[in-house]
Please model this.
Amino acid sequence: MVDLKEVKISTKSYLDTKHDLLVIGLFENEKLNGNQKKLDKIIDSRLSSAVALDSFIGDKDKTLIVYGNDTIKRIVLVGLGEKKDYTNDYARSIGSDLLKYVEKLGVKRFSIDGDSLGLKKDDFSQAFTEGLVLGSYLFNDYKTNNDENVKVERVTCFGGINKVAVNQGYVLGNSVAFARDLGNHPPNILTPSYLSNSASKIAKSVKDMNCKIYDLKEIKKMGMGAFYGVAQGATEPAKMIVVEYNGGKKSQKPIALVGKGLTFDSGGISIKPSPQMDEMKFDMCGSATVMGVLQAVANLKPKLNIIFAIGSTENMPGGNAQRPGDIVTAYNGKTIEVLNTDAEGRLVLADVLAYVNKKYEPSAIMDFATLTGAVLIALGNRASGVMGNNASFMKEVQKASSLTAEKVWELPLWEEYTREIKGKYADIQNIGQGRLAGTITAGAFLKEFIGDTPWVHMDIAGTAWGPKEPSYQPKVGATGVAVRLVYQLLENRS
Model:
């Protein structure tokens, strides 16, 4: 949940306005500028005196609070470090850190001098606004007693800041927060039906969106044996969610975004160990990424055609559950030997990917999944693993990654890895020959359902929850990973 309700742009001078708290920035070894000198004069030289007394020279991450007068009650001076080191992501971190700092002061509304904070550049102002929103995120929907700090409700920006960039930052920040909320809800609340209702609600609010929800009977009838096999042991109704967004020309092929939506993963018959099984509510974070992008698209309306698709179910043990050794037939006709029922996400994705590829003939497909624990061994929680079949599309993903600071690292999909999933009794099997290269063999499995369509798979098992750095990440719970990256990719294409 985000308590920050508004990021407002003012065309006035901050010198002519009352402020409970005003934030100004200072780069390392820079002197007070013209407006800051005027401000200093208004408050009887208290700003310059405090700077001199504290030897404040704009050191990175240093803050100095100065008490003013009845018009400008408090000033927070933020050290920005060297100007050459100022980046999008640093602006994002400043926004988050500042929001949290002000909350500790018990202030609900504050103002910023955007020019002094380096926000004249649109990329910086967007990133800073994202940081403000993400810094205000807190998930306490199920707490009966909330003793947290006072929450900031409004930030007013002064200076030459682009309103469009700020609005986009606000929308993207809230879209990430929405994805986080979905991941953080408990599995008894966040069910496939909850996901499908959320997608339907968003689609109904936008003229150019259409939503179709497929139930388990339809999934079976359509020949999605891999998806059905996973879902057959669950009592919660499975759903395949497909949203069409037609924001581009009719002749334009869509880009497809596909998410794994396992709202709880027990492992099925191949049941997981008890420790930290509660975290398996996060196994739907791939779908949360797709939903976050869906919300961003609904608000920002890029001139593109986009398909959003989610395969959602629980993976549960029981009398009707899929067994190790079962052989199922996927939507594209391939037979799959199920050797481990805990390698279920790839089975669900296989059918959804094949369906989207055949029905919509997209220009490119990108899927998101908390697919393998092996990616944590390879990359920790600092980066998502990516694999694909098209170098040009991979470069698009990597470019978006560098612009948003959502790190990815490409792993190979050589033919040798495909041989690892060759089945003994079926075309392919759902795990590799051993424990080695588990992330890659999972990617090789998905590749069998793509054909020649440009495709990138992103394994977010290490980044979907847990990382606590940088500061705009939550201390606990879902991160909303890749929402900003994907929207940047879409924007680059529009």
Remarks:
- DSSP finds 15 helices and 17 strands in the chain.
